[in-house]
Amino acid sequence: MFSKGNLAVPCWLWRSMRKLFLLLSVLLSHAAHLEGKKDNQFIWKPGPWGRCSGDCGPGGVQSRALWCFHVEGWTSPLSNCDENNRPPKERSCFRVCDWHSDLFQWEVSDWHRCVLVPASAGQALPRTAECVTAQHGLQDRTVRCVQKLNRTRVVNEICEHFAPQPPTEQACLIPCPRDCIVSEFSPWSECSKGCEKQLQHRTRAAIAPPLYGGSQCPNLTESRACDTPISCPLGEEEYTFSLKVGPWSKCRLPHLKEINLSGRAVLDFSSDSKERVTFRHQSYKPHHLSKPWDLDIGYQTRQVWCTRSDGKNAMLSLCVQDSFPLTVQSCIMPKDCETSEWSSWSPCSKTCRSGSLSPGFRSRRRNVKHVAIGGGKECPELLEKEACIVEELLQPCPRYAWRTSEWKECQVSLLLKQQDPHWHVTGPVCGGGIQTRDVYCAQSTPASTAQKAKEVSRPVKKTSCLGPAPSASQLCNLPCSTDCVVSSWSAWGLCVHESCRDPQGRKGFRLRRRHVLMESTGPAGHCPHLVESVPCEDPMCYRWLASEGICIPDHGKCGLGHRILKAVCQNDRGEDVSGSLCPASPPPERMACEIPCRMDCVLSEWTEWSSCSQSCSNKNSDGKQTRSRTILALAGEGGKPCPPNQALQEYRSCNDHSCMQLYWETLPWGPCSEDTLVTALNATIGWTGEATCGVGIQTRRVFCVKNHVGQVMAKRCPDSTRPETVRPCLLPCKKDCIVTAFSEWTPCPRSCQPGNATVKQSRYRIIIQEAANGGQECPDTLFEERECEDISLCPIYRWKPQKWSPCILVPESVRQGIMGTSEACGKGVQTRVVSCISDDNQSAEMMECLKQTNGMPSLVQECTVPCRDDCTFTVWSKFTPCSTNCESTRSRRRQLTGKSRKKEKCQDSDLYPLIETELCPCDVFISQPYGNWSDCILPEGRRESQRGYRVQGDSKECGKGLRFRAIACSDKNGRPVDPSHCRSSGYIQEECVIPCPFDCKLSDWSSWGSCSSSCGIGVRIRSKWLKEKPYNGGRPCPRLDLKNQVHEAVPCYSECNQYSWVVEHWSPCKIHNELRSLRCGGGTQSRKIRCVNAADSEGGAVDNSLCSQDEIPPATQSCSLLCPSECVMSEWGPWSKCPQSCDPHSTQRRTRHLLRPSLNSRTCAEDSQVRPCLLNENCFQFQYNLTEWSTCQLSENATCGRGVRTRLLSCVRSDGKPVGVDKCEQRNLEKPQRMSIHCLVECAVNCQLSGWTAWTECSKTCGHGGQMSRARFIIMPTQGEGRPCPTELTQQKTCPVTPCYSWVLGNWSACKLEGGDCGEGVQIRSLFCMVHNGSSSHSAVSVDAALCGEMPFQDSILKQPCSVPCPGDCHLTEWSEWSTCELTCINGRSFETMGRQSRSRAFIVQSFENQDSCPQQVLETRPCTGGKCYHYTWKASLWNNNERTVWCQRSDGINVTGGCAPQARPAAIRQCNPACRKPFSYCTQGGVCGCEKGYREIMRSNGFLDYCMKVPGSEEKKADVKNLAGKNRPVNSKIHDIFKGWSLQPLDPDGRVKIWVYGVSGGGFLIMIFLVFTSYLLCKKPKPHQSTPPQQKPLTLAYDGDLDM
After folding, report:
1. SS3 1184
2. Torsion angle, alpha carbons of 533, 538, 543, 549, to 10
3. What is the pTM (predicted TM-score) of this model?
4. Which letter does DSSP use for residue 847 in this model?
5. In the predicted model, what is the mean pLDDT of the chain?
6. How far apart are CA 895 and CA 871, in angstroms?
7. Among the listed residues 1141, 1205, 1204, the one whose alpha carbon sits nearest the alpha carbon of residue 1173
8. Does position 690 have pLDDT exceeding 50, yes or no?
9. How confident is the model at residue 1422 (pLDDT cuts 50, 70, 90)?
């Protein structure tokens, strides 16, 4: 334990120790850091690169993290790692953007060869011999990311942005190795008769090459010595000798040492010297082509030796013939094609920055200075292209977009002409039409740089704009005008002052009005006048209207009395007003009257005044009104008598105003014009600073019109009803014409132009907005044209060959040294200069002529200088003239010259013909039709478009046309010639007809029928019917009914008070009582009724059927005339009104009053009646009735477009009876707002087609099968019931059959050895100008070379080396035929798409001594299409003496060598192993040893024959037939010996068990089973008896793996 004081020491000590420890650790770590740095124990470790950010393309940046790691794996501060080795933290990268997908793609090579999967050591596994069909392998391919245009490689990450990288490896199958397959041997060649040693041979051909490591082809040749019956005596063998020529050496110039000053040549056959000769022999001078490029003529040599038929060389003298072969000849020194230097690179084709990385291209050229000659190197490529990108320095590419002008005005006539081609303008048209606009392509300017809207981009060619162009036409509508529909006139009003506010004078007006039922539509819609007036006198705006009370007696109950009058002041509209307004004093308040006393005559009240008989008065009659009263009761004795009949009626005149009504007539509103005051306030400033919009005024003329007279003075019409003459309007904005800027001038051709054709360039501009409302007019010039300046004419270049030089032979010194002769004759070479000149004979570059012609005339040709022994001739004469007969011939001649005339060999006309004959050209040509007839082609009419729109009717679409059929023209020999020789057009033609389409034709509309209802709403119908059905694609019919009619129904409205019943007063009551004394009681009375038209001013009667028959008033009624003593009551007053709701609890009342009491005290009849308000009996409700919308109604002038659908309003009583609309209006019912809506009748637009395009170029340049076509396009598809588009939108025409001329290579000639019998020679072939008609069945025929043009300049294709084998030489055969095309297959399934076929050359050995010098046999394989799978099987013949033939056969029956699996080959020889050496033994058919007849085989335990034992008595008995199938089964010979002494032998002589032994064994086995079974039954205990247990459910046991279940 420590005390507290002692405890401070360890604490202090601990603190000190801790500081020391920290200091030591820092020092140690620093030392470790230095040590680690010294030993490089810290390494940099970078993280993965991050995403590429920044600008699209190569300007991106990506970064990564860096760590410093100790070698043991822990991280450390970055300062510990060496800064010098610090990896970069950032790098530039290619940032991929979505639009790069068009620029980059994965480039994938073909799969490489399939190889076996390598073993772990990296080596390929050996192919197993047990391969059955195929082995598993791997194949790889190259995958890289490339730029599409120039195929340059970029990093794979760019392509991975758009698509995953395609796999670079895949599993594959390698078929088993297949050996070379060859055919059967040919028969042995024949041996010639003779005693010398000879060889015969046979050959075979390769059918399939070795594949997948199979063995090479076996020998294709077998040789053997011929059997010669007699060998030649020694030294007297028969040999043949042949002169063998070697190949020509390379062309070389003579060396300096070959030419000495004395002219003698020293031979030097070395051809390796590079030394050029500077001193030229005199005969070498004249062979210059041109100064800068000389043709050098050298010489070439070849060796000649004599060979014997056994292949050995012999003395030359044994082979020398009459003429020794040429061993030296002149030749042209080979010169390579010489070209100029490359031109400088052309500018980059990309001139602007488009935002894509697609590069431009630039090119450079070089020209041919001199063509290759003498087998020199041909010319290289003359044009080189490469991609170029200079994005940074370029301006952005302009972008183009489709623009349109404004729509032009609507053309209705276009559609009307479609319906009726004979239609012509008869009046204003309206409805549906077509309007067009111009569509053009222009550069789109960004909004930031766009200037004022007025500036319009100039048009450019339409190919610059991508995507579909906007439509250039559309359907439109010209609004149709309809007039107002108005009601009938109201009754005439009272005579009022013109202005009741300021009544003046004694003249006034009576007015009647009508109101607008349907407003007018369209710009020309007109409303008739709505107010008519007639002048009148004593006008009154206000008047008293008095109502009478009942008569009150003054004294007592009858006699004189008075009525109380109640008067109200009313205005002209029938409204109650203050009494102070009425001018006169009010009528008196009381009015005298009389109440009949008991015996007085009683009269009824006066009736209402009848309606006026006329609406106005004329000279002949005035209007009248009547009223009447009737006698109700007769007077009694002493009573006041009844008045006479005349006093029962009163008359007064009415409507005494004139029938000449006055009304205000208006003209249409004038145009909206400027009102300077209003415009100054409302003007808006446009582009030009002048007022273009605002408010203006419209005026119209108004004048007073007298009915049936015309215009009268304005003061005769009431000024209060005068319509307004000025109204404000919106001024239409002035629209200036806007046109685009002129397009760029069409480019003048940069290249030269052939001939004297003048080339023009043009430009155009397009009207975007037409001038309107006084705006600035459009310019007159929209198209300008001018001639191109500085157009150069293309010069025509041609070859100008000069004369051939003299024939140049081998130098004399060389000729003497080699041939030993000095005569300057034989074969040589001559040259000429060929220059290129223009048509004005100026020299030009060779390239110019090469561009315009196919080839070049030859510079060199072989020539011959005749020797003394040669035959010489004159030149051929001209051909003799031809007669007109086509069978005639022409000939030319030549003659021998000099000594040749006497030489015998020159007289041979077969070798040296002196006359040549040929058929004359014949001008007889045969034509025959070729190909099908063309479509029917109509003659091209003049196409005029109407307002920029091509109408189908403008161009002829049907009718008579022509169809064409090409002809093939040939001469008399069947050679094709130009068709113009047979017929100028190259066609035969015949008339044809395109049937014209006929549209459905309907009649005109019938007139509208009358309205089905005389009161209220009804229907009017009109119809049209079918006149002609459509055919040939005409416009179809609308939907027709069963009567082939189409109907149109519209609602109609008849005013219910238009026709009304007018009744006269009742006649006096006619009593029925026959007693004349009694003049009272019941009777009848009658009246006249008539139907009148309310609008008829005369009030004349009309037919009664026009008035409602339901409302016809009664013409007679019963009546009663009361007797003097009876009580008299007045007529019943009207029933009081029921409430509008027709409440059944409410009632209505009517009353009457007592007129005369009865004499007796009997009470009078009731004076009031009450009845409930019952709906549809005495109380009615009213409602507005709306019809359905009508069909879409068009104006009379329109056929389609915007129309109106209407509905009508009527008033219907609750019992369904139509009543006047005023009944509904009186009850202030809510009216529907819209009585008409706009609608659209679809326009039937015929299909609109463009014109035919020009005929295309012929699909073939010559020969049969060429087609020309032209097309037209649908501008506007069919709409509605328009005429459908025709199916024929393209037309085909066969081209004229022009002959095809082409250079064709002839067959190779036989090998020319030029004097030798065998050895190396030359094969030549010629170019022939052939004509054919382009069809595979027609064979080409040779024609004049001039028809094919310049011959192509290629010596190499016309000459090739060849060889003829000498007797005794070992040589190759000709190529075998190509084998059939075969595919590589596995189990019968194709392994590849391309097959292969082979051919081979075998070598022939003619002498065993020369077989070492034999060439190798040659195998050639090429790919082919259309191959088959073949399988190969072994075939074997029947055995014959243990031998048979085994061969391999292909599935098509060809016997081959190779192809069949060697391990499956059947045996060809049967041999016993070991061999049968025992006495009396032999090898059997089964391949085992057996014994001869009469001997028995004794076998060993191993199954082989031990010995043959003689069968006793076999001489007398026939030996058993032995079955040797089981000989190999081992049988113990000791067992055989045991049974030897038995009489019953269990074994056969061949060791097998006999059949009876099996039988005995089987029987014994059955007996044993029987005994066992019997003993079991006997020994078995019987079962104790048990009762049947109750039935239980079966127990199902499921084994779960336990043993104790």
Report:
1. strand
2. -110
3. 0.59
4. H
5. 78
6. 10
7. 1141
8. no
9. very high
According to the model, what pLDDT value does residue 292 have? 41
CA angle 722, 571, 654 (to 5 degrees): 80
Cα–Cα separations (whole angstroms), residue 807 to 375, 804, 1542: 20, 8, 117
Alpha carbon distance 1220, 1511 (integer Å): 149
The pLDDT tens digits of the residues spanning 1205-1250 come to 888 778 888 888 887 777 887 888 887 777 778 888 888 888 888 8
Query: For residues 995 and 958, is the Cβ–Cβ distance under 8 A?
Result: yes
Q: Residue 1494: how many CB atoms within 10 A of its CB?
A: 15
Residue for token pair 């079962």: 1583
| DSSP H stretches of helix in 1212-1339 | 1221-1226
Distance of CA 266 to the CA centre of its chain: 81
CA distances from 562 to 174, 551, 590, 593, 1434 (A): 143, 5, 6, 5, 155
Question: How many whole angstroms separate alpha carbon 1559 and alpha carbon 579?
Answer: 161
Q: Is the separation of the CB atoms in 505 and 547 below 8 Å?
A: no
| DSSP annotation of 290 | B
C-alpha to C-alpha distance for 1047 and 1041, rounded to whole angstroms = 9
pLDDT per residue over 357-387, tens digit each? Answer: 667 788 999 998 888 888 888 888 988 888 7
Backbone torsions φ then ψ of 579, nearest 5 degrees: -65, -20
User: How much is the pLDDT for 890?
Assistant: 87
- Contact assessment for residue 659 and residue 1097, using Cβ atoms and an 8 Å cutoff: yes
In contact, 1462 and 1449? CB cutoff 8 Å: no
Which amino acid is it at 957? E
Q: H-helix or E-strand containing 1293?
A: strand 1290-1294
CA quadruple 1094, 1098, 1103, 1105: dihedral, nearest 10: 10
In 1333-1488, the DSSP E strands lie at 1341-1342, 1359-1364, 1371-1372, 1385-1386, 1389-1390, 1395-1401, 1403-1404, 1418-1424, 1432-1436, 1446-1450, 1455-1457, 1481-1483
Burial (Cβ within 10 Å: 0-12, 13-18, ≥19) of residue 718: buried
What is the C-alpha to C-alpha distance for residues 436 and 431, in angstroms, rounded to an integer?
16
Assess whether pLDDT exceeds 50 at residue 945.
Answer: no
Rounded Cα gap, residues 455 and 738, in angstroms: 9
CA gap 257, 200 in Å, rounded: 51
Contact 592, 562 (CB under 8 A): yes
109-117: long-range pairs with CB below 8 Å, 24+: 109/141, 109/142, 109/143, 110/141, 111/139, 111/140, 111/141, 111/170, 111/172, 112/139, 112/140, 112/141, 113/139, 114/138, 114/139, 114/172, 114/173, 114/174, 115/139, 115/174, 116/174
CB distance 629 to 607 below 8 Å? yes
**pLDDT-wise least confident of 246-260, 1034-1048, 1387-1401:** 246-260
- Burial of 81 from C-beta contacts in 10 A (0-12 / 13-18 / 19+): buried
CA R_g for the chain: 66
- The continuous run of DSSP H or E covering 18 comes out as helix 4-38
CA distance 66 to 76: 11
Q: Contact at 8 Å (CB) between 644 and 604? A: no
Name the H helices within 1163-1250: 1221-1226
Which DSSP state fits 593?
Answer: E
- 1104, two tokens: 């009664």
Give the closest residue to 165 by CA, choosing from 105, 85, 214: 105
| Site of tokens 């060979």 | 307
Q: For residues 903 and 930, is the Cβ–Cβ distance under 8 A? A: no
From CA 571, how far away is CA 613, in angstroms rounded? 25
Write the DSSP string, 148-181. TTT--EE-HHHHHTTSPPPPSEEEEEEEPPB--E
Angstrom distances, CA of residue 1351 to CA of 295, 374, 777, 1357: 21, 17, 66, 13
When mean pLDDT is compared across 25-29, 196-200, 738-742, the lowest value belongs to 25-29
| Cβ neighbours of residue 10 closer than 8 Å, sequence gap 6 or more | 2
